[in-house]
Amino acid sequence: MSRFEFVADHRGAFGVKRLCTVLNLSRSGFCRWLKTAPARAAKQAADAALTRRICKVHAESGKTYGAKRITAELRAGGVVVNRKRVGRLMRQHAIQGRRLK
User: Fold this and answer.
1) pLDDT, tens digit (0-9, with 9 covering 90-100), for 72-94
2) pTM for this model (two decimals)
3) Is the separation of the CB atoms in 8 and 35 below 8 Å?
4) Torsion sign (Cα): 8, 10, 16, 18
5) What angle do CA 39, 21, 44 make, to 5 degrees?
6) pLDDT in tens, 53-71
7) For residue 8, how far is the Cα from the chain centroid?
8) How far, CA to CA in Å, does 44 sit from each of 8, 48, 78, 101?
9) Which of 20, 41, 53, 72 is deepest in the core (most CB within 10 A)?
10) DSSP of 44-69, one letter per residue?
11) CA–CA distance, 19 with 10 (Å, rounded to integer)
12) How far apart are CA 1 and CA 33, in angstroms?
């Protein structure tokens, strides 16, 4: 839980100004965090959908493909994606390709 989430959860009881002062946050930062919540939710949903596709490609490859090959497969399928994003999602979900000895 982030400090902004804590403020959002308890702002009815204590007020935003007091919570931000105690937690050493700016109110403008909290308002910006609230304003960008839909964009964060959309990115998380897109990452979840992409992770499902990564898992599918990885399974079809016999669990041998790494980030570079999975990115190439996704691009061949029409998905616009960066290798670094694929690598990040693979690390987060402990998906690893096989390495040659």
Assistant:
1) 999 999 999 999 999 999 999 99
2) 0.78
3) no
4) negative
5) 15
6) 999 999 999 999 999 999 9
7) 21
8) 19, 6, 20, 36
9) 20
10) HHHHHHHHHHHHHHHHHTTS---HHH
11) 8
12) 14
